Amino acid sequence: MSAGMKKSPSNGSEKILSCEEQQAKINEVKKLIGTLPDKLSIYCSDASISRYLRARSWNVKKATKMLKDTLKWRSEYKPEEIPWKEVAREAETGKIYRSNYFDKQGRPVLVMRPRCQNSKSTKGQIKYLVYCMENAVLNLPPGQEQMVWMIDFEGFNMSHISVKVTRETAHVLQNRYPERLGLAILYNPPKFFEPFFSMVKPFLEPKTYNKVRFVYSDDVNTKKIMEDLFDMNKLEAVFGGNDTSGFDINKYAERMKEDDKKMPTMWTRGNPSLAASEPAITGAALSLDSLKLEPDSDASDNEKTDGSSSQGIEPEVASDHDEPVAASTGNATQGVH
């Protein structure tokens, strides 16, 4: 996002916010959040708060509620501490993986292959999804906040559809990783998928839905779409590119283990991409109670869904403030913010 003007809907028209107005809203959220334990304070950088504000159309009250919920979730779930060894079983079929190339905007690419689902554990599937999101954020290049989701529908059938997993996937992506999704490409979805997509559409926020693109290999416009987005020599053959190397779990595991070693550096004050502007806070005496999570009837849409828990998982997907729309870890169709 540029540091210039931002648009957000207001009474049916678009309201323009200057850089100064945006910063004022960021400062307002900081004041409402208050002091936090060190890791959470680092998480609440201006850039991070801005994503929550954009996700809630610069509504300070709703953005603060959304951010507080996420801080409580991060405190309990500890997503940045999930090691590769805890999700390796879920990952071995390549149902979700971070590709070794970026799009032309420098956005990392997460590939999802619903046919490769290898688990019936919703908890395990969502944990792996969270691991993948944390890993993708770790690998964002300087100045880039978003990623691309590519859903490969080859071999997809009705058995890969799970409304529950899709809903929870959407919740995680939209509410825990707002504004991380740049684009979600649904590649060769079968005809029978369309009714299912219509059914899960209510789980998606308009910003997310508008980032979804249906792409078909037999469509004359598809090649141009992919060429505009990617270096075709790096793009995988299954998406119309020239790379035929395929997914190798052994090589991927080594990449992830190396990334696990880098993760702690992301949560230090010296990290320019996450460091908060406030001075370090010791936080030893602080607890989740400091987040003061009180009910807010004006909170926001899509925040709680059936079967969600504060420490476990809640849904999310592709949107101007989230991610894709397809099978979370091989089920249905989820979406990336």
UniProtKB/TrEMBL annotation:
Highest taxon listed in the record's lineage: Eukaryota
SMART domains cross-referenced by the UniProt entry: CRAL_TRIO_N, SEC14
Composition-biased stretches (Basic and acidic residues): 291-306
Polar residues bias (residue ranges): 328-337
Domain CRAL-TRIO: 84-247
PROSITE patterns: CRAL_TRIO
Any one GO molecular function term: phosphatidylinositol transfer activity
Annotated segments matching region Disordered: 289-337
Entry's transmembrane regions: none
The protein's name: CRAL-TRIO domain-containing protein
Organism listed in the record: Malus baccata
